[in-house]
Amino acid sequence: MTELGRYQDPLTIQRVLHSTRTIAIVGLSGNELRASHFVGYYLKRHGYRVIPVNPREKEILGEPSYPSLLDVPVPVDLVNVFRAPDALPDLARETVSIGAAALWCQFGVINEEGARIAEEGGVTVVMDRCLKVEHARYVGRMHWLGFNTRRITSVRSGLQ
Description:
CATH architecture: 3-Layer(aba) Sandwich
CATH topology: Rossmann fold
Structural class: alpha/beta
Organism: Nonomuraea wenchangensis
Radius of gyration: 16 Å
Shape: globular
Pfam families: CoA_binding_2
InterPro entries: CoA-bd (IPR003781), NAD(P)-bd_dom_sf (IPR036291)
Helix content: 25-40%
Protein name: CoA-binding domain-containing protein
Largest sheet: 5 strands, parallel
Domain CoA-binding: 16-109
CATH superfamily: NAD(P)-binding Rossmann-like Domain
Number of strands: 7
């Protein structure tokens, strides 16, 4: 297994997905066109509690936004990161500090130092993977828009 591959283990990903209820999304944007917003919307729609962490926003997806992980007033199971890789070491320290079980780094967010800090603090790390894509792969059913319609069919309703 390559060095990065150890942070992409399918069994670890599935365990994290199934044990998570509350997700703090660092870098969640209020802009509906940003990937972080779409991921947050998707996760909220699938029953997760989504907590925005963005010092530039007051509220996102109907939830209050916090300036940092240290300001989040409730326990967090998973920290999902939409930030530049160089922010990861500090975010890993904060993740350990708040007692989150997992640190999930989105596509392109790769930083070995941050991963090491999190792991040494007892935090499971998933890196260079999209939380929405992995959820759809292992938990939900993949619809053409990425939503679970709870229907298995090749025919769209109302288009017969």
